[in-house]
């Protein structure tokens, strides 16, 4: 893994936007994630789009996951969330932003169909990721198979509690989701994971310096041919070998990788 440590969350967002902009301008297939961590990067990309510095006109996108039981138009569906926070502001064609069909009557078939759609599109060029406090990526909670495909998952009670802030109360949070599996995620050509805040420090330590293990799903990045992890100082605070990362060249260009 390439580990980049920056002083603040704002600097993490700028670094990540630099990488993502190269891919977008090259017409890449983008893997998008929701959650609080990538919002600052999305805002940076919106600003650059308004200045004419980045275009998404030739890109398509696949989302990591979706709640089961919510219509796409529900304000808390991840399709609506990514549109509200990002894609509608940068000229992204709505028809080219794909998400798992969480409102399907047959979620298992919907999961397999989505996994196949990613492969049929030629795969994802760069996949954006966050990390949960327990090391999850997407909704791949601890104990998830490292070779898992897009599938139905039951949310951990802590994840339900964490997501309750987006709903009127915890009872309204769906208990099941469709999520890309660790095997599906790993097929992206470039993985870009962002983490900020001291509450992510333990998970970051397990991901970077712990063993490759289903106990920390994010540790799958250790196995990937091209994985970039961008951290603020708080998220990097528990890394034992942080002196090897903190001086990473801030000015090295990141060019799109296509197979």
From TrEMBL:
One of its GO terms (molecular function) is glucosamine-6-phosphate deaminase activity. Allosterically activated by N-acetylglucosamine 6-phosphate (GlcNAc6P). Keywords: Allosteric enzyme, Carbohydrate metabolism, Hydrolase. It is an enzyme of class 3 (hydrolase). The record marks 144, 151, 153-154 as: Part of the allosteric site. Pathway: Amino-sugar metabolism; N-acetylneuraminate degradation; D-fructose 6-phosphate from N-acetylneuraminate: step 5/5. Gene3D superfamilies: 3.40.50.1360. CDD domains: GlcN6P_deaminase (cd01399). InterPro entries: Glc/Gal-6P_isomerase (IPR006148), Glucosamine6P_isomerase (IPR004547), Glucosamine6P_isomerase_CS (IPR018321), NagB/RpiA_transferase-like (IPR037171). Residues 24-227 form the Glucosamine/galactosamine-6-phosphate isomerase domain. HAMAP family: GlcN6P_deamin. NCBIfam families: nagB, PRK00443.1-4. Catalyzes the reversible isomerization-deamination of glucosamine 6-phosphate (GlcN6P) to form fructose 6-phosphate (Fru6P) and ammonium ion. This is Glucosamine-6-phosphate deaminase. It comes from Corynebacterium simulans.
């Amino acid at each position: 893994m390439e580990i980049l440590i920056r002083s603040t969350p704002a600097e993490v967002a700028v670094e990540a936007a630099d990488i993502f902009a190269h891919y977008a301008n090259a017409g890449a297939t983008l893997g998008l994630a929701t959650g609080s961590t990538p919002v600052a990067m999305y805002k940076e990309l919106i600003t650059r789009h308004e200045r004419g510095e980045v275009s998404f006109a030739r890109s398509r996108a696949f989302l990591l996951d979706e709640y089961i039981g919510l219509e796409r138009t529900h304000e808390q569906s991840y399709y609506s969330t990514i549109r509200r926070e990002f894609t509608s502001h940068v000229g992204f064609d709505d028809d080219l932003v794909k998400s798992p069909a969480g409102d399907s009557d047959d979620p298992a078939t919907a999961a397999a169909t989505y996994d196949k759609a990613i492969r049929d599109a030629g795969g994802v060029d760069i996949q954006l990721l966050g990390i949960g406090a327990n090391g999850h990526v997407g909704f791949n909670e601890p104990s998830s198979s490292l070779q898992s495909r897009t599938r139905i998952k039951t949310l951990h009670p802590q994840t339900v509690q964490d997501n309750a802030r987006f709903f009127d109360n915890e009872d309204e949070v769906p208990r099941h989701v469709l999520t890309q599996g660790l095997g599906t995620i790993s097929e992206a050509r470039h993985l870009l994971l962002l983490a900020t805040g001291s509450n992510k420090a333990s998970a970051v330590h397990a991901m970077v310096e712990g063993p490759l293990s289903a106990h920390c799903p994010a540790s799958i990045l250790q196995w990937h041919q091209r994985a970039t992890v961008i951290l603020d100082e708080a998220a990097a605070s528990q890394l034992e070998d942080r002196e090897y990362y903190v001086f990473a060249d801030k000015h090295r260009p990141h060019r799109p990788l296509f197979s």
